[in-house]
Amino acid sequence: MSKTFKIGGVHPHDSKFSRNCAIEVLPLPQTVYISMAQHLGAPAVPCVAVGDKVKAGQVIAEPAPRALSAYVHSSVSGTVKSIGPRKDIAGNNQNHIEILVEGDEWAEGIDLSTDLVTTIPTDRAEVLKKIQMGGVVGLGGATFPAHVKLNPPAGSKAECLILNGAECEPFLTSDNRIMIERSKEIVVGAAIMQMVLGGCPCVIGIEENKPEAIAAMNKAVSELGYPGISVMVLMKKYPQGGEKQLINAVMGREVGSGALPISAGAVVQNVATSLAVYEAVQKNKPLVTNTMTITGDCLPVEKQHNYLFRIGMPLSWIAEYAGGVPEGAAKVVSGGPMMGRAISNLDACTVKGSSSLLYLSEKTTKRAAQSNCIRCGKCAEACPMGLEPFLLNKLAKNGMMDELEANAVQDCISCGCCQFSCPACIPLLDTINIAKGQVLGILRARAAAAKAAAEAAKASQK
Amino acid sequence: MNKLLVSPSPHVHTSVSTQSLMRDVVIAMLPAALVSVLFYGWSEILILAVSVISCVGLEYLISKFLLKRPATICDLSAVVTGVLLALNVPPTCPWWVIVIGAIFAIGVAKMTFGGLGQNMFNPAIAGRVFLLVSFPTYMTDWTVPAGFIHATDAVSGATLLGAYAEGGVEAIKGINYLQTLFFNIGGSAGEISACALLVGFVYLLVRKVIRPHITLSIWGTVAVLALIFWAINPAKYPDPIFALLTGGVLLGSIFMATDYVTSPMSAKGGIIFGVGIGLLTVLIRYFGSYPEGVSFAILIMNATVPLINKYCHQKKYGRK
């Protein structure tokens, strides 16, 4: 019996129509627009000027000082045409660097060959530096800077590195494809991260609906022969790829409320992040490419693709290249159908964490009218955090902040299981997300006030 | 380019709806309804029709003319109440008594509180108890009408529980449990065949409409309590199988105690709720003035649900 997390979860149809579409390399557009906000944390600060010539892989923006941030590199060679605000997929203005593409020249020192480099470096600090300089961020969704996660604070110890190959979101197949086509590079990446974390074992968790990926990863693990790496087959259940759920499935542990995974001895990285770590460390190649799926329920399978894209490519250009937005598409989603974002602006560009262009038909995606809550409790049964969405929804509507906090609204991971499973079509997550934001704000303000009070008391003692 | 929808995630939704859940409950009650029609004939068809039509019609009229809001009859919850009410009355019950029951069930117990999801008490149970208290003669007339199947050894004039209440253990000596499992003539329509009710229970479980906690904890409690009483004094109290198979234990525990709206949300709460129903049922049967206590037990426990919900929560991830 394959393993899974204990609490909640749902079983949407997995719809992995593009699972057999091999990764194709996209050609280069005329212009790319590279966002400064491609990672969790403060936007990067441009370090090139208009008119500068840049090469692919060259640093064009540096991390914002004293904040969680990451390097951003040019994904193409050419001339910087403009630097300024441009709308992202949600329609929010972000600082972008516009580059006119000229040829395809890469910065010096980047190894573009496909030769596998299997020797694991031993200098931990240097490897971490390379990961940071390579602009590697978590590609499972949160785009958390990888070098921060791979450098646990003093006093905590990584007991297990978990590679996330669950890909539990329906429709998405990019992780599936890289696990099949680039399995060895992923395993080398895992071995590098093991070294960085001090030699802890590594488990690669893959859901059972990806047998080819499981076989390929098993083969790569046994052929490369690094110690302490194994593949674990997981049951197909959403949200298996959620960090907290995956830790529970693989290690049987729970991460305490508000705590980081490292407190449970776990470090979780996506398989695509492992590939990026491999490229940054072994090939000196920064994170400027990633894999995305073009899929949907209103797109014939022969028009579905898995593409290797470069960051900054306009989504509309990719959509055109793939054959245009299909006739029946009512919604275009970036990411999976459970947690992805509906795109309001197709002129937005790919970022490091882009994973798909998902075309959904009106029948699949249009929200039905909501009716009365029938107190069936299906939302609570589905919640992988063990929360009671029906209660949180009610408390949120009444603005009861203390009760929301007591009922752990801040633990919500926004996976959407509650809203997915509600037979009365109540938009539970919409309400809960707003309430969660408010409660987290209150918690932050309280923590800041407590800190200020402690400092004031300390100062008065002196 | 075509206009695109934009909304927060999730972008897909389960195919399960309130309507599909209620439809499943109706389907689960079909075996029991079918058996009752076979044994009680035309009078049972009339009862089912009057009950369903008056429940659905009343909900429509009340929504439309009193509450002035779109009617919600398409969710099929009124159909569920209608079928349940019909299964809860004797086959000889006059049609106008059923209409009064429907008025109480839908008009008072359901719509007064705000309709589906807002009611404190299960409408069908409330309707049945209202009729039992208001029209005891009609509600305890167990004359067996002519059915499409003639059961030669049909007990007429009293249910098994009624016989026990009047005549004690002596009166129910020699009953055939195998027979009660399939057809137990006498009693409300829904009490005839334990087998038909169990088929419905399995259907509800397989379709994941309900979880088994509530039903099983009722059975467990009734069985254990009946066993204790029987062990102490077998000359006075019937055995546990009799306690489980007769009266409304199966009908109530499968279809009425599991009503989403009026039962606790958590599994833990469901067990407390079920144990409470089982306990009250046995106490009312053995020490109360009514031969049967399931309806009262469910109604009383319905009232405790907000309290149970307040104190019973499921285990949260990462918290004690």
Please tell me about this protein's structure.
Chain A contains 14 helices and 17 strands. With 462 residues, chain A is an alpha/beta fold. Chain A has a six-stranded mixed sheet with strand order 1-14-13-17-15-16. In chain A, helix 3 packs parallel to helix 5, helix 4 packs across helix 5 and helix 11 crosses helix 14. The termini of chain A are far apart. The model of chain A has no long low-confidence stretch (mean pLDDT 94). Chain B is mainly alpha-helical and 320 residues long. In chain B, helix 1 runs antiparallel to helix 2. The radius of gyration of chain B is 20 Å and the shape is globular. The N and C termini of chain B lie far apart (52 Å). The mean pLDDT of chain B is 88.
Distance between the termini of chain B: 52 Å
Structural class, from helix and strand content of chain A? alpha/beta
Percent strand of chain A equals 15-25%
| Dominant shape of chain A | globular
- What percentage of residues of chain B falls in helices of 4 or more residues? 55-70%
How is the biggest beta sheet of chain B arranged?
none
Distance between the termini of chain A: 62 Å
Uncertain residue segments of chain A: none
Query: What is the number of beta strands of chain B?
Result: 0
Q: Give the strand tally of chain A.
A: 17
